[in-house]
Amino acid sequence: MLEKASYPKYPELIEHPGQQASHLRNNQDKAGYTKRQKKRVSRTLRKTIALASLAFGCVILFGAIPGQKAALREKASEVTQQLESAPVEGLVAAIQTVGQNRNRLPWMILPEVESSLLSAVQTARESNRFEQPGKVYTATFTPAQRIAAAGEAGNIYLWDRQEEQTQILQGNGQAIGAIHFSPDGSAVFGNSATVSEGVQFWNTGDSQYRSPAHAELISAAFSSDGQKVITGGASGWVQLWNSQGEWIANLYPRQTGSLSAVAFEGGSIVSGGEDGNITLWDTKGNLQGRLWAGAKVTSLNLSQGGQRIISEDLNRQQAFIWDAHTSQWNQFLLGETDTIRTATLSPDNTIVARGTHDGTVQLFPLDAQIQPFSTRSLLGHQGAVNTVAFSPDGKTILTGGDDGTTRLWDVWDGTLLTKYHLQQWSEDALRTTALSADGKYIAVSNAQGEISLRDVEQNPLAQFSVPFGQAYTYLSFLNGGEIIAGQTIDENKRMIHLWNLDGQEITQFVLDAEEELKTVALSQNGQSIASMTSTGRLQLWDGTGQPLGNAVTVNPLTQFLRFSPNGQQLLGGGRDTNGQTCLWQIRNHSLQQTACHALSSQVAAFSPDGQTIAIGSEDGKIYQWNVSTGKVSQTSQSHTAPITAIAFNADGNRMVSGSADGVVRLATAQGEPIGRSFEGHRAAVRSLAFNDSEPNGQTVVSLGQDGEVRVWQASWQGWLETACHRLQHHPIFQAANTPEARGARATCQQYVWSGANPSSEVANVTANSAQPVSAQPVSAESIAQETRVVVRLGERKVYVFQGDTVQAQYPIAIGKAGWETPTGTFRVFEMLQNPAWTHPITRERMDAGAENPLGTRWIGFWSDRYNKIGFHGTPDRASVGQDVSHGCIRMYDEDVQALYEQIQLGTPVIVEP
Question: Cα–Cα distance between 366 and 346 in angstroms, integer?
């Protein structure tokens, strides 16, 4: 096993089939990654590419051509400019640019390109569009989750999610302003857009229109169980009917004026009309109360078992939410009708969706004081937005407008993968929480002293507790998440506990503190402890609780402590008016203060190599402290609220930060923002971590003080997948014959849908040009005749197929036991002629030649972003046919030269047992 600390000059990758990758990644030291050395790698790219050796595998050096970087930056700038005016077109351009240049920059897309792609995914949320004649006044999801919309044409149009129109319910010609389906979807009411006309009714099974029994009806709705119908009319009576249309009762008191809206949900019935009152009854007809809307009510929506009412009157849209704790209704203004055409709430009552007169759909939090962030806009409608509706799961919003379109949008920004609340894990109040540094595990303790351990997908791992009465004040993960540490207090006795992931206690010891502890930190190996008391006494302890060296006094008080990755340094900081961030060296168990900076903060993080400290300040800025030089610089990454969490990824090339307003931002290691912020937490972000185990690249896990855990996509691979799937059924993606759309379809087929949709167009991308290549589709006949490489490990042979015909076959050497060549379907991502090789230990460099361990050709087809596997030649001809490599496929040099001429970048490689 090789560590990067042993060869600091170049970032090198070792041939490796994957089973050792995690350990290798966790032990790599990035001390050699200086700017000067990176430039040196780029300058020498065309001359030297370090590949794998016979003893140590294929060691690769790679870089990006400066001209290509400039071209990518220019394209990224164009995409950025497109996003505000034409977000869908901008998304198509971003997909095409990133996909086509993946082979040129296989593991790191330029920050500008990454940022443009992420911004495009976040901005262009429209996923489907449905056309109908005339203006759309109302739209909703049917019980079967079809799309239903109606408007001035007087018909109800139904579609499935793939934009196939499944049904048209022909009406009597009057405009429809609201539609209500029965719970089983078998029947539907169409309420008039004006009070001068009545209700329409259809049986969806036969699409037949039927006139209601009472022509004077203005509004009607089904009960939530479908067994009853509630109606309102010009007479002011609210009437109850059974499902056979038989009258049951009139509900008292009679309303003043006509009733323009009624709703029936759970055990509640509600009506509204000309008098501006919203009246509530239970299912027995007992009057429950009245709410004052302020003006004539034009529409009502009742949900959550009757606990929530969304109303619209002539002046404004409002939400009334029942508070069970206070036994009263809370009233929220959603928008004034002079600027907002329609508004509604998400199912969880956290997000307001509004349609405006100018065609914009706005999303913002219900309570801006709890979750402040700027209003998000969904662009696309070419006229006023008349209706907005959330899907039952709250992930999708449906809108309709004057332009005759009904559109589906992703409510989330395209990066949020999942979210859940930690309180679901315990019936008791939660005390403390912890997130492992790799983002895989979460530990939660409750008021009863119980600790629940789960993985990030909520799978239970362990449940354990300490004696009742001991309260947890601290939880943390050590050793990369393999050990849980906790501090408890019992009768002023402070104890440190260590558990493994099975919940078994490894050890416990008393931390003998003379005064109240303010903060505690543990090193990642669990061998060192640092504590700060209320008087500023800073003390080191060993892993058994014995003091190490003499305590030092710190003033002002340090409110947080962090050990460096190697445990040889200690960082402390505070956020009061005299706040400082200080660094101590630990020598012979003694603390020696090396430097302090006047930065008021409550959080900081070491980079994985320990050479950089990211400090989150109270003013919302991030500062980077270079440990070697002692210099501090401000990054471009910043927040509008105090920063409460920071984390680096395992490579040290990405950073994520969170703030007191619940905002999460992704950035490069230098602090350059990538895309827009991730928003959703309703309280401060407590902790953050990168999770590299996801199949589509990195994810970010955020834990908020609101008790929510959220998982976000954090890699361009995941963003590309989201972008392609979002546009898969979009008209601009399906029908448009522009070069951009064709290129995007081809890109998605090659990099996202490969193997899942073989009949789709495939991009023919090469990597020889420094400029981005416009991908062109190829015919179905060409796809059927596509060249592919099939490796049969058991036969020790590689075959080249053209369609179903074998064009050539060659003998090979494969991975030995413990270093097996990985099986599966891959694509060629790198091709090099006459590669040079640098010995990974001695640093001796070998130019291309007869004795070069890699022969004259290199063809890479597998990587985990840290290691590479591919075909290459070998001077050891006797090894061909054997199991001797470290995962790579060795070939006679004349054979690998022939294979090199038969394939290209993107050629499929299928490795079979």
Answer: 9
Residue found by looking up tokens 């799309």 in the block: 147
For 554-705, where are the E strands, in sequence order? 560-563, 569-573, 581-587, 590-597, 601-606, 612-617, 621-626, 632-638, 643-648, 654-659, 664-668, 685-691, 699-704
Q: Say which residues have a Cβ less than 8 Å from residue 55's Cβ, sequence separation at least 6.
A: none
In the chain, the amino acid numbered 426 is S
pLDDT score of 469: 59
701: tokens are: 């896990």
Kindly give the parts of the chain with pLDDT less than 70.
1-65, 102-108, 162-163, 195-196, 211-215, 368-375, 467-472, 480, 491-492, 512-514, 576-577, 694-696, 754-785, 837-843, 864-866
What's the CA dihedral at 745, 750, 754, 759 to 10 degrees?
50
Verify cis geometry, omega within 30 degrees of 0, for the bond prior to 17: no
Torsion angles phi and psi, residue 718, rounded to 5: -65, -40
Residue 120 token pair: 């495009």
Kindly report, residue by residue over 66-82, the tens digit of the pLDDT. Answer: 777 788 888 888 888 88
Q: Is 501 helix (H, G, I), strand (E, B) or coil?
A: coil
Closest CA to 496 of 469, 468, 527: 527
CA distance 4 to 8: 6
- Token pair, residue 238, equals 């609210």
Query: Cβ–Cβ contacts within 10 Å for residue 191, how many?
Result: 27
pTM exceeds 0.85 for this model: no
Reduced to 3 states, what is the DSSP secondary structure of residue 217? strand
Measured CA distances, 647 to 114, 119, 215, 585, 864 (Å): 19, 21, 65, 22, 22
- Give pLDDT tens digits for 704-763: 998 999 999 998 888 988 898 888 878 777 777 788 888 888 888 877 876 443 223 222
**Residue 510, Cβ neighbours under 10 Å: how many?**
12
pLDDT score at 730: 81
